[in-house]
Specification:
The protein is α/β, with parallel strands linked by helices. Helices cover 32% and strands 22% of the residues. The chain has 11 helices and 16 strands. A 10-stranded mixed sheet has the order 3-4-5-8-11-12-13-14-15-16, covered by helices on one side. A two-stranded parallel ribbon has the order 1-2. A two-stranded antiparallel ribbon has the order 6-7. Strand 4 and strand 5 form a beta hairpin.
């Protein structure tokens, strides 16, 4: 049996090499990305013979939902299974609710962020991350990345024209899969696809300095987020072993050279862990590190998971940390924790389902 191709892996110009005339490619992409078609056979504007040909050669369902959980705050965590049986997680995060005026007329749409995975597992080995426990299984293809956004928009009936923000902050290190991630960005931003501007897409990295440089040279227009989490190499080596290959100085140099829209800032994610990195002395050192960088600091309160020896920090300490950073003229926010009542931390849902299956077989 001939192997079929995931059409979500292809840019329109690649499909144009085999589909003629060219306007048919545009129609196909509109059916997939804008009309949320379920299969090729229902693409009624295409000739029947082309629909049948497409159905034999291609597919656009590279994942299926195994499980999903919805939080009280509206966040939805998805556990997806890929064609080879491996599993990944994605999250829909509602950022702002719809607004209506006194007459009941809608005056503002709901706003969403979708957090996607870029790898099955991860090899960075961060001590606080559940995903790191299983190591790296493989990279996701561009189409497997794209499919997460497409499926979540479709499943939640978010219209094509309603733009979403995308953060590459799920399972995996995006810059360790740079070729496929960069292609996914191009596919997602294409006018005939979901048309999600690169300025709405944020790549989060644990600090692969050489890959940050390569990403900058691609000049895709995406936003950059650095998972810093420590202000000196000794502590960062402990929390994030990748720091032994790319220390803080090399990361900061790569960030300073990264091209970014003058209206935007580089985000520095800082996971506050109780009694580890949440003191005012750490905040002072962070300010020194960020000197000269147009930065925004996003403080994240550690979300405990089973087996972790780290603890969630005291909110009062987190606010003091934030206040100090802000007092030095650096934009600093505490990320609103979403999904605390579900398996919200990256890798939790996958591990929970694995444990449940193990118990059922026991």
């Amino acid at each position: 049996m001939k192997e079929t191709i995931n059409i979500l892996d292809l840019l329109p110009k690649e499909l144009e090499e085999s589909i003629k005339p060219m306007f048919r490619v545009k129609q196909i992409y509109q059916w997939i990305y804008q009309k949320y078609a379920n299969n090729f056979l229902e693409m009624s504007s295409l000739p029947k013979n082309l629909r049948e040909e497409m159905n034999e050669k291609y597919y656009f369902n590279p994942l299926k939902t195994i499980y999903k959980e919805q939080s009280k705050d509206g966040s939805i965590k998805y556990l997806f299974e890929l064609k080879d049986g491996l599993r990944i997680e994605s999250v829909l995060l509602p950022m702002k609710e719809e607004k209506f005026n006194e007459k009941g007329i809608k005056i503002a749409n709901a706003k969403y962020t979708i957090c996607v995975s870029s790898q099955v597992g991860c090899k960075s080995g961060c001590s606080f991350c559940l995903t790191a426990k299983g190591g790296l299984k493989r990279n996701l293809s561009a189409g497997e990345i794209v499919a997460q956004i497409l499926w979540i928009k479709k499943d939640n009936q978010i219209p094509y024209e309603r733009r979403v923000n995308i953060v590459y902050m799920g399972m995996g290190e995006p810059l360790d899969n740079l070729n496929n991630v960069s292609k996914a960005i191009k596919i997602l931003s294409h006018n005939d696809g979901l048309c999600i501007s690169p300025r709405r897409q944020t790549i989060s990295t644990s600090g692969l300095a050489n890959q940050i440089k390569k990403l900058g040279e691609m000049n895709l227009g995406v936003l950059l987020a650095i998972s810093l989490h420590a202000v000196n190499d000794t502590l960062r080596n402990e929390l994030m072993p990748i720091n032994k290959a790319y220390n803080i100085a090399s990361i900061m140099q790569a960030v300073r050279e990264f091209p970014i829209d003058q209206r935007k800032r580089v985000m520095f994610e800082y996971l506050l862990i109780d009694n580890i990195n949440d003191k005012i002395d750490h905040a002072k050192e962070l300010v020194r590190l960020l000197n000269g960088i147009k930065a925004k600091v996003n403080l994240i309160l550690f979300n405990p998971h089973e087996g972790s020896f780290y603890k969630r920090p005291n909110l009062e300490n987190a606010i003091k940390f934030q206040d100090y950073i802000s007092s030095k003229g650096i934009t600093c926010t505490i990320r609103e924790s979403k999904g605390l009542d579900i398996s919200a931390a990256c890798g939790q849902l996958k591990e929970r389902k694995k444990e449940r299956k193990k118990n059922e077989l026991a």
